[in-house]
Every structure is written in structure tokens, then in C-alpha cells.
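A quick aside before the break. I want you to see a complete sequence-to-structure record at least once, exactly as it would be stored in a machine-readable document. Don't worry about memorizing anything.
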Amino acid sequence: MKTTLFKKVGLLIGALIFAISFAPNSGVHAAVDYSGGLMDKMLMTLSDTESKGSKSTYALTDNNETTSAIIEKWNTPSTAVDHAVGIFNGTVTANAIRVKADFDVSIGLFDSTGKAILPTYWYTVKANQADGRLIYLPTTYKGIAKVNLFNYSNTRTVSVSEFQLYNMTPPANPLDLAASADESSIGLTWNEVTTATSYTIKRSTTANGPYTTLATGVTKANYTDLDVTPGTTYYYVVTGVNPVGESIDSNEASAIIESNGQVDPEPEQPTTPEPEEPTTPEQPEEPSTNRAIFVVTMTTGLEKEFDLSMKEVNDFIDWYEAKQAGSGKASYAIDKHDNNKGPFKSRKDYILFDRVLTFEVSEY
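That is the input. The structure line, written in C-alpha cells, reads:
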């Protein structure tokens, strides 16, 4: 009987209570998905014990998923080659693994004296996780001198094409964060970070912070902020997170929700229409008030209606055409005169050039 039989039986219990976490991605994983493997091109030996065996292979560490090694079932015969053993030149530190196999396997980590480093001696990577994904260990393990992949099944062999250890670092910071506003929310997008398992969203109403955490555990490279107030500028940063740690902040992006159908204009000196000059109707038989109902349709669909003199209408048109040609102010103040003035001395509407869709003049 093998000297390690009791250890193999023990793994059936230990593997059930050993918790691991893995990046939230699924599907096909290429052998080069995650660089920096500690076992790249390591010569593995196939053995019937946890010690170095006589058969050797590079198939598990060659970053080529078309090559593989067969790990035999462990209980019969007693000399079954049910271990793949790798010995490091010195010791390494690791906090993640990757396995590509067609069935469950168990992994053991050992120090230079042969003592098991993992608290449960072994733990199991189930077949649905053995698809090449990056699997994070519960903590970072140091002093690893030997690694062992074991087929604990007594009913079938396992084909293994890739096996790697990694010493992962916190993810890189997300890049190209962008913010855009609509009528009731602000949407954020950024570039996905491969080694991040989630993202944290932070927000401020002041440029460059300080920021408060808006959301954690976001698993996609986009987010919609619904808790916003019209007229307030919000500033955002995003960080990438994995079990090892958190990245530094992304670039800052900002956006403002439109207020009452238009973006609040930056303060500018209002333009006051010149006094009207008296005009003489060209056709006395059809007297004219020399006034018009002036309707401006904004890009949001909002319509603004004013009762103006034709002089005021023409002044607006002159401003719009000059601004369209590249000169003039970004906004134009329209005096509402006594219309709905209420208790105020005066009321003016500021029209932003890039918010005007069309305007209509109905002279009367």
C-alpha cells in the first residue's frame, strides 16, 4: 500500500472545507490568458507518490493546450501514476493557480522539508473550474518548494493540459473612464482590467475629490448613477479590485445633469437689446404692431415662446448667424419683459447656441 494513502483519503474531507475564489469569467481560456506563471516550462515528473517520479513531461507547463498528460486513477494498481510533481529551484510565493483538465484534480503545496503548506493539506479544483480560469487562493503562500497535482478519483483517469501557479499583484488602474449624462442619470464606461475581479465606483462634487464610495463589487466595465441632482456636477473615479488588493484611481471623469431641459450656462455678461426705434408702416391700410411670437425649439425638444419686437427677433438672428460663423458669445439673453415677471424686477432666458434646434417667427 502507498505511504501516502492516508493523506489521499484525508483530502476528500479537507477539499470540501477549503475555500477558493476565482475571477468571474467563464468560457474558453487560452493558455496565454495570464502571463507570469511560476511554472512556465517546468519539467514535471509523473509518480505514484508525492515524491519525484521517473517519468517526466513538459505537457502541463508548456503553455500549449494541445499537449496533455494522463494522470491515472489512484487506487489500482498500487503503482498507478496518479501524481504530477514539480520541484522549484529554491522557493516561490503564490496566491493563484490555473488548471486546464477534463475532471476534478487536487493540488498540494509543500515546503523544502516536505511539509504541507495548505491548512487542509490538499484542496480540490472541480471540473467546472478547471477550464483555464485564474483561481485565487484564500491568502498568499510563501516558501513553496514543491507542487503536486493529484488525481484522487478511483474510477477514471484525468487528462491535464495546463497547470500553473501565480504570484498575482493588485490590478492595474482602469483607463479611459468617461461620463455622460442624460435627463435623469449619469453613465460611466471604462476599459476592462483583465486581472480585476470587480470594480469600485467613487464620486465627489468637487474636482479631484475627496471621493466617497458609491458602489462596490461591480463586475462589468460600466455603471449607471441614478442618485443625481440636476444642476450638480459630479466627478468620478474607478478602481480595480481582486483578492490581492485594490488599484490606484482611474482618471477622473465628470458630468452634469441638465436642469429644466438645458445645461446651466456659465455666468456671462447679459446682452441688453438696444432701445426700439419707431417705425412707420409701409402700408397704412394694414397697420402692423412690428412684433412677433418667437418660438425657439431646443435640442431636448423643449419649446420656449416669447412675445418680442421684430428688433429683438432680428438681434437674436444676427447673434445666431454670427455664432454659427464662429464668433460671438455662447449664450444669448432674451428679455421676457412683463410676461410672467411676477415679483421680480426683470426676467431673462439665456439660450445656449449649441442647444438650439430651430426657431420660428410669427409676425403680427
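Two observations worth writing down. Residues 1-20, 24-32, 263-267 have pLDDT under 50 and may be disordered. The chain has three domains: 5-166, 178-256, 291-363. We'll return to this after the break.
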